Amino acid sequence: MLLLLGGAAILLFSQRPVQAGPAQQTAHLTPVAVLVIICAFALSLLWTSGSQVEALNSLGKYGKLLMIPLIVALLRSREEARYALAAFTLTQLFLVLSSWMLFLHLPVPWATSETALSHYTPFSSYLDEGIMTALFASLCWHLRALLPGRLATIGAPAVAVLALLNVLFVLEGRSGHIVAVVLLSLAIMWELPARYRAGIILLPFVLTLAVSLVSPRVQNRLIQAKQEIQAFSLEKGASTTTGSSSGIRLHFWHRAAQLMAENPVLGSGVGSWSHEYNRLDKAQNPAHQEIGPLGNPHQEYLLWGVQLGIPGIALIAGLLGAMLRDTKHMEKMPSRAAQSAIFALAIACLFNASIYDALIGDFFCVVLGLLLALGCLRPSPPSSLKFKQAASSQ
What we know:
The chain is mainly alpha-helical and 394 residues long. It has helices at residues 2-13, 29-43, 52-62, 67-74, 78-103, 116-119, 126-142, 149-169, 174-191, 203-214, 216-235, 245-262, 273-284, 300-308, 310-326, 332-351, 358-376, 383-393.
């Protein structure tokens, strides 16, 4: 709330002009999509089956989407966007180095995560950190031209490789592995001549096979996923007591699909997932243990579908499409970086509630805001040019 109020105050009282770039005239769909989404969730307060506390808390969670247009509006020049991205890059580099230090059993006194020693994550879960680090590696590659000299030719690619290796050989999150493979495939495709880009369809599968052969961690997680899915199939998804990540997800997704079938047009309202899931599961399984409030089905698309019906899925698809549309007229460098972030979000939402969740959701909103701002703004003119323009205007 303080962030939004502070940003709104700056926009109201600031007199600095915006240095719009060639994409500024078309980069307007994302703010519209965000406002429509917030209004839709707010309107669903009228019919939500969740408690008032759950409904308002869930609405507040989606309020983080306002950070995207707020960041775009607050950054007034390409230089400001570069400074903001530099600060973001340093924090992510600190995160990656901390993870490597934990992996090498070096002291990391600032690590606060409960899984710091077991999964080498200094602050968050391996699920979130894998996705964030995979996207960070991609951004280091696509935005390397922003750096001078050897930092662009050697430094940024080296950091990208260091982050990618951290995802594939240190962290265990399967979502992060998938995001890393897809973003690596996109980066390779964009570097290829246009006549060879059709091969991108097969490239992710080839890379997955190659990575699984050289990375025991990826191979073990793929085998584990296969075993968990087979176990869930044998149990016919009767309960969430399988104790496996894949089994719990499949059970939640099954229930979410049933709930969507009950309310396909309007959904059951914002913040209703936990209440509706407990109701349905208890009716079909008397031994059901209720999940706590503010839960989610570990899939963003189905979560929106439960709360807002089929229009909810259309809204999240529209948000992703609006952001992609806003990158269309950007320069190549910020466009590819922003599109990589959008694809990463779209994939992450298949396996987690990556907008609804606090940490990973904030991460994506900040990244997308910075990248959209970078692509929509033009560099400031040199000081000599500014002086000449001021003199001519006089």
